[in-house]
Amino acid sequence: MRLGTLSLLVRPRTALVAIALVGVALLAGAAALTVGSLPVPFGAVPGAVLGIADDATVVRAVQGVRLPRVLSALGAGAALGISGAVFQSLSRNALGSPDVIGFTTGAATGALVQIVLFGAQPTQVALGTVVGGAVAAGLVLLLARRGGGMAGRQMILVGIGIGAIASAINGLLLVRGTIDASSQANLWLSGSLDARQWGHALPVLLGVAVVLPVVLLLSRRATLMELGDDVAEQLGVRTERTRLALVICAVALAALATAAVGPIAFVALAAPQLVRRLMRADAPPVVGGAAMGAVLLVIADLATQLLPVTFAVPVGRMTGVIGGLYLLWLLLPGRGSAEGRGWR
Questions:
Q1: What is the pLDDT of residues 1-28, one digit of tens each?
Q2: Would you report the helix, strand and coil content of the chain in percent, each value rounded to 5?
Q3: Which residues cross the membrane (predicted)?
Q4: CA 163, CA 139: separation in Å to the nearest integer?
Q5: Cβ(79)–Cβ(293) under 8 Å?
Q6: Suppose 289 and one of 85, 103, 171, 176 were both cysteines; which one would form an S-S bond, judging by CB atoms 3.0 to 4.6 Å apart?
Q7: DSSP letter at 93?
């Protein structure tokens, strides 16, 4: 498709998979709006969302409680899916997701500093996650540089080390805090969508809306960089500038998602991998990763609400269990190499 000097390449399979995933995410979100102590018929969901339903109680329950929760899940899942796609492309490794290489843990450290030491409000906690994620990313990029470039395996190993240090600091902060602050921090660390408000949902949704077009513009360069920095530079890609821009975008999205719902495990790892298998495309699955991440997080949250238990299960624990099983499956012999082009 051409428009003047601009051209757009559309792959039918990629577009159809992305559209289908967006539809599944919206349907899962609508289903989540019906679940709760006040049953809401599925057919009444559109009217409740628009505020034109006959029952005012249903409108208040949907708009004031359930809709912010669902939008937080959609936004955070999309942000993690994009972030995972970017980091896996840059590292050329299936394990190159922000939760594995320490960025999410670093963002959690910034949040815990605000919660435990300063008793901060959600806005300050969100700012702390962004700062913590940026510091962790800066340390990983600085230490992973080797010979003027950056190897994907080196980035992952350094990130795991930084994540381990950040995790130890998080444990010390929990011991240092008061009982109330430590309890609040421990609940936040589990990753939860309970009591989400519009202040949680709107920043991450806005972040996705702003950052997604930037990542899409850089995705072609990222595809060329997967061939190696030398090859990409010969094709006219400024690798260092492109890598820095992509890392900033990915870290910002991971931090915003962490600020909105807490540390969520394995969504950023699994979403791009699943989409690559469905789309069979070479380019980083940016839009598809966002849609798959939203699907995974919304369905995981819906599953926690439907479990036949008498206590609330944090969605972060649910994604951790599912993601751990997926990681074991990914590492089984015969699933392909996790390094280079074989990891797709």
A1: 666 666 666 678 888 988 999 999 999 9
A2: 75, 5, 25
A3: 70-88, 100-119, 125-144, 156-179, 199-218, 244-271, 283-303, 315-332
A4: 11
A5: yes
A6: 85
A7: B
Please give the radius of gyration of the chain, using alpha carbons only, rounded to the nearest integer. Answer: 20
Percentage above 70 pLDDT, the chain: 90
Question: Do residues 88 and 272 make contact, with C-beta atoms less than 8 angstroms apart?
Answer: yes
Note the pTM of the prediction, 2 decimals: 0.87
Residue 71: which pLDDT band, with cuts at 50, 70 and 90?
A: very high
Residue 305 and residue 32 in contact, taking contact as beta carbons nearer than 8 Å = yes
Task: Find the mean pLDDT for residues 146-169.
Answer: 78
CB of 218 closer than 8 Å to CB of 245: yes
What does the pLDDT look like over 194-249, one tens digit per residue? 888 888 899 999 999 999 999 998 888 888 888 777 888 888 888 888 888 998 89
- DSSP per-residue string spanning 167-227: HHHHHHHHHHS-HHHHHHHHHHHT---TT--HHHHHHHHHHHHHHHHHHHHHHHHHHHHTT
The single residue listed with the structure tokens 């969508």 is: 193
Strand pairing partners for 150?
145
Q: 233 - beta bridge partners?
A: none
Q: What is the mean pLDDT of the chain?
A: 84
Which residues, in sequence order, are CB contacts of 257 under 8 Å at separation 6+?
A: 75, 76, 77, 79, 80, 83, 204, 264
